[in-house]
Design a protein that fits this description.
mainly alpha
Length: 110
């Protein structure tokens, strides 16, 4: 919707400005704030919202490239696959998370 897109664009514009002179959200380096924001950015489905925000996109990719993030994603995917292998359907939340993360990894690798 127009309201949501406008709201997101305003927040991404602000984040773009914050990231102009730093690598992470806080001056002290990578923090829980970055973990939380990476999670938020992972669920952004509309790449056109991020396209004009090169610093935010690079920031998101840095967060996703961290080894700890990769371990968490790999662990979660393994759990989803184990559920499937046991002929149980994964919960919708698990399946959606896995789809989102797979898409994010493709975007981050591009």
């Amino acid at each position: 919707s127009g309201f949501v897109d406008g709201f997101m664009t305003a927040r991404l514009d602000r984040m773009e400005a914050v990231l102009a002179d730093r690598e992470w959200l806080l001056d002290g380096g990578f923090s829980v704030a970055d973990i939380l924001m990476a999670h938020v950015l992972a669920v952004v489905q509309d790449d056109t919202l991020l396209a004009p925000h090169a610093r935010v996109t690079a920031y998101r990719d840095r967060c996703f490239a961290r080894p700890a993030w990769q371990r968490v994603i790999d662990s979660y995917r393994a759990r989803v696959e184990a559920e499937r292998a046991a002929h149980r359907e994964p919960t919708e939340e698990a399946a959606q998370f896995s789809r989102n993360q797979a898409q994010d990894m493709r975007v981050g690798a591009a």
